Structure to design on (160 residues):
């Protein structure tokens, strides 16, 4: 009976190590806090990441912390990418924060919600070097109230 208990403890220990070690593999993650809890047009937010290995696929994620009284279902942004060779691409991106009935996505408490929104999956970087991602508030409200944090993450999905 004693050996059976030790076997179960060993198995559960191994299982818990495997479970907790199999999280997302983030190559980069950074969050910036908007002290005034509002995002104005003038407050663009930039993140720089250096890519050395161009053989991997990645997932690009925008992280947002917003008030539960945020006045919209989504958050319009303009996301620009500056490539190592100096070229720049920009496009508007709608970050969906709630469904059509007003139910917030993400993790919420009574005052704030936090959500990670994948904006591109299976992305690859075809140039080694430093990339800059710039997020700009792109709604019709300036400043936009109820936004406390904006972050950016790059998750390594492995070889392509």
């Amino acid at each position: 009976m004693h050996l059976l208990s030790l076997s179960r403890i060993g198995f559960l220990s191994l299982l818990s190590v495997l479970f907790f070690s199999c999280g997302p593999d983030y190559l980069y993650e950074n969050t910036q806090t908007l002290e005034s809890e509002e995002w104005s047009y003038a407050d663009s937010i930039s993140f720089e990441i250096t890519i050395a290995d161009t053989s991997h696929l990645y997932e690009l994620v925008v992280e947002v912390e917003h008030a539960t009284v945020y006045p919209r279902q989504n958050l319009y942004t303009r996301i620009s990418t500056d490539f190592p060779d100096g070229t720049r691409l920009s496009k508007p991106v709608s970050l969906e924060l709630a469904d059509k009935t007003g139910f917030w996505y993400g993790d919420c408490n009574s005052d704030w919600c936090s959500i990670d929104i994948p904006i591109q999956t299976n992305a690859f970087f075809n140039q080694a070097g430093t990339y800059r991602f710039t997020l700009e508030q792109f709604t019709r409200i300036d400043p936009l109230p109820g936004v406390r944090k904006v972050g950016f993450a790059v998750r390594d999905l492995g070889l392509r």
